[in-house]
């Protein structure tokens, strides 16, 4: 969600910079938390202009910046609308010559792969020349590999099936080992002098199958700038689900238009490089597209990943979700898919969706996998 500044004095404070703090704060012009973040982002860039200090517009301080370049890029996409972000990024590259805004090949190759850097790459890949884009793709691949390594184990664990202690299994693998029953059935082999228990018959238990019929899972991903964490984890999650037997996974990204990325779901790197972050939001249009994909409502799950701030018709959105739920579709709205992000979403819209039968909440990718497995098992 973009920053909204309604107080005139706060606007003046952001324009004039830290030098105006003392004069305006006593008149209600002090900055709230969101405005303070915007001020830090503006100071990171325009504080480099010595002419501004001479004009009294902003104070050119000597304190070290607390923002790294990727942090600055990511903060822009949380705080400002698309047209402002484009102007700030343009000024960074053209006016101040900050080539390391994830567009400098030498800098990019030195950076340690991280999710923070991945977010910055996704925000600025449109500024990169082919050589830099190639290096960025390698960086994205390494971060995705790390995320996928973790998520894949969580997804497999969730979908491997529940342990059924009533039935034994001939599959002697560690995850099926029944410690308590093995101990009980081998107690007669306890050697009191050596204080050793000798196992003659290890016991293994069976597992129930997670699904017997094919399920359709449709992931609808809001690709507005503030949802970048959710886009990343959704792309990797879709790739993990794709490999599961009995699952038909589709991935759809949207803003005011719809892009079906299912063809790239097996390659999350390629998928992420095609995502276009930013723009408006028309959730109702995305849900309408999902309706067209549903062929067996009772075996379909739609997962909407969004902040629920609807730029289109909220009435149409609620109506379509209600229709899908009444037809038997399981509908889940996720406010975030990030491991650590605090959910920020339109609670009124979320409440309206819950009232027509949707389930709305915030889950980590691992929790989402467990939820999907639970619904598939019935």
From TrEMBL:
**Which Pfam families does the record associate with it?**
VWA_CoxE (PF05762)
Record SUPFAM superfamilies: vWA-like (SSF53300)
**The VWFA domain, residue ranges:** 214-373
InterPro entries recorded: LolB, Uncharacterised_CoxE, VWF_A, vWFA_dom_sf
| Alphabetized PANTHER family for the sequence | OUTER MEMBRANE LOLAB LIPOPROTEIN INSERTION APPARATUS, OUTER-MEMBRANE LIPOPROTEIN LOLB
- Name of the molecule in the record: VWA domain containing CoxE-like protein
